[in-house]
Amino acid sequence: MFLHIVGSLALGFYLILPLVFGKVAKLTPAAQEGTVAAVKTFNTYAQIGLVVQLLTGGYLMTKGEYSAAWMTVVVVLFLAIGAFSGIMGKPLRQALDNLRNNKGIGEVSGKLRTFSTLLCVCVLLISFFMVYRSII
User: Fold this and answer.
1) What is the pTM of this model?
2) Of 48, 53, 104, 116, which alpha carbon lies 20 to 30 A from 80's?
């Protein structure tokens, strides 16, 4: 259970990500590059946390009594988080390349805001269903 909670703390990064991408356009180009590079690194660590969540969550599901509906909802949300965080990797790389070539992040900033918002919503939903698993 401890490792599962530590893994969920790694996913907490996605809760503040929409706020970060909402303000990144107002920064200087050097600060934008540093921010995007940090987000790219944190995204990698959060994906490692997601693997920890998969392993520990699978183990915990075998030890408990959970409804099939709850397990389905949680697995779908888990897969959505994994998909959105993986898909967000390409716009992050593009943003870094654009910033290093003095082009700005205007082209990919919409994608980054969209995926960060979707990730935030999915992490909030999965956390809600983890706490209130008797709802489903």
Assistant:
1) 0.88
2) 104
